Amino acid sequence: MGKRVGMEVSIAAAEAVKQANVDVISAYPITPQTHIVEHLSELVANGEFDAEFFCVESEHSALSVCVGAAATGARTFTCTSSQGLALMSEITYIASGLRLPILMIISNRTLSAPLSIWNDHSDAMSIRDCGWIQFFVENGQEVYDHVFVGYRLGEDRNVLIPVIINMDGFILSHVIEPFELIEQEKIDQFLPPYQPLHQLHPDHPVTMGAFALPSIFAETKKAQEEAIRSSIPKILETWKAFGDMTGRYYHPIETYKAEDADTLLVTMGCFGETASVAVDKMREGGKSVGLVKIRLWRPFPFDAFKQAVVKAKQLVVIDRAISVGACGPVAAEVKAALYGKDQRPLIYNFVAGISGRDVTPSDFIKMVDKAEIEIEEGNKEGYEIYGVRG
Amino acid sequence: MTKPESEWTWKELPVGNVILEPGNASQYRTGDWKTLKPVLNKELCIHCGLCYIFCPDMAYSLSAEGYFIADLYYCKGCGICAKECPTGAISMVLEEEEK
Question: How far apart are CA A372 and CA A276, in angstroms?
Fold first, then answer.
């Protein structure tokens, strides 16, 4: 068993990047991701971490440097939040289209306007369709662990897809948590050096990023789509190998007291831990409530999700972002996932905790109560922003 | 790969659409962009080669008879050659509609 220490989550994330033997870090500071790259820059400057650290002039450049470096066969890392991700978004599509296994941590923060530094998932949702494998984690240990999982997975010859680890800004990034750090020898064994399939090298010239005619574009996208869809078994395999090494097993969909529950809360990210406290309280009060947590957002684990929720009478889906003019993006996904099922639970959707507004266990209880009443009264399309005044 | 790119299936594409064979741009027929094509009046041609030098697509090459001739597979019909020709030997004429 590894060493157990107390650490700020951002610092542990940076330590994981060091332990993953990353070659190139390129980042631009933005709250609340700052501590991760600050710590990385210290490690490099102090000679404790042999990597190239690129201070760039924008997030667009930060990811562009990663794309260039990854194309030469380097293991690369970047990290951003909110507006920084928005500025970077153009390159997110390029990284995945070129099939370069970059790893990025997003310390999730609200997109402006109004300007807000606090947490929600609107930044992650703005690049939902960018073609990266996207995880949402619940606590600090999961951030640390997924750095190794992410590189091993993304760099697999049968995958070659960049990976995003979404962690809630401040709520997770700035708290101190206990970590079980993994010994370096174990990591080196789990995560061998990156062996690129194609790379920019003067001895073997290739062209990357050329344009494609309409006659070949659809085939390219089909290949990319098939690669990410068929990465699910590889994701499971990587988690299994990681679990065998550390004892911590991860799953695309995780459940808590969900087996026989009539009502299931559905959450993503940090909400999961708070919601599980609410589930305990409701269970104590005799309510048949459970929790389903989505860890793997892209590729969306349709089968695992359906299996987890199909027996419930109703789902209370809590989104931390709004698809303005529609509903919460997670709810939209969940509805699409269940459409083909003859028997499916009714869905009530709350958008809660946007811009970092606190969502406590009692808020989850109130949401479940409200959803159950609304559904009983025949409201089958329930959608609201929770806790809005007026 | 021997067959043209437009016949590749998604399974045959190199990962990330990396181009492994240099010079594959030569397969791309830019000639079908044009509406006007250059026609050379050999009696006026002084073999100066300015058309060859100015052609942005390098469509011109020297023929065995000593004339610079545009390869219409690549010529986009921009008309720069006709504009630059010092003797007015090149005229741009409407390309016939393909049957």
Answer: 18
Total domains, chain A: 2
A18, A147: one domain: yes
Q: Which distant-in-sequence residues (6+ apart) come within 8 Å of A23 by Cβ? A: A51, A52, A69, A74, A75, A76
Confidence of residue B2 (pLDDT cuts 50, 70, 90): low
For B5, the closest chain A residue by CA position comes to A216
> In CATH, which of 3.90.550.10, 3.60.15.30, 3.30.70.20, 3.40.50.300 is domain B32-99?
3.30.70.20
pLDDT of residue A3: 81
- The β-bridge relationship of strands A76-80 and A52-55 is unpaired
Which of A226, A246, A266 delimits the end of a domain?
A: A246
Q: Where residue A162 sits, what CATH number does that domain have?
A: 3.40.50.970
How far is residue A144's CA from residue A146's CA, in Å, rounded to a whole number?
A: 6
Predicted confidence at residue B97, as pLDDT, reads: 56
What separation in angstroms does the CA of A241 have from each of A52, A146, A236, A247, A296? 29, 12, 9, 10, 17
Question: What would the mean pLDDT of A91-105 be, rounded to a whole number?
Answer: 98
Instruction: List the single residue in B5, B15, B28 with the smallest CB-CB distance to A197.
Output: B15
Measured CA to CA, the distance from residue A79 to residue B7 in angstroms comes to 40
Q: Is the CB of B28 inside 8 Å of chain A's CB atoms?
A: yes
Q: What pLDDT, on the 0 to 100 scale, is given for residue B24? A: 81
- Domain residues for A170? 3-246
Inter-axis angle of helices A59-71 and A82-97, to 10 degrees? 30
pLDDT in tens, A40-51: 999 999 999 999
Predicted pLDDT at B72:
96
A99 contacts in chain B (CB < 8 Å)? 15-16
ipTM of the complex: 0.84
| Pick from B9, B13, B18: CB nearest A206 | B18
User: Is the pLDDT assigned to residue A141 strictly greater than 90?
Assistant: yes
Write the CATH number for A299. 3.40.50.920
CA atoms within 13 A on the CB side of B55: 22
Distance of alpha carbon B46 from alpha carbon B66, whole angstroms: 10
Domain ranges across chain B: 32-99
Q: Is the pLDDT score of A257 beyond 60? A: yes
DSSP, res B73 = T
Query: DSSP code of B84?
Result: H
- Other CB atoms within a 10 A radius of the CB of residue A1 amount to 8
* Predicted TM-score of the model (pTM): 0.92
Q: Last residue of some domain: A191, A211, A246?
A: A246
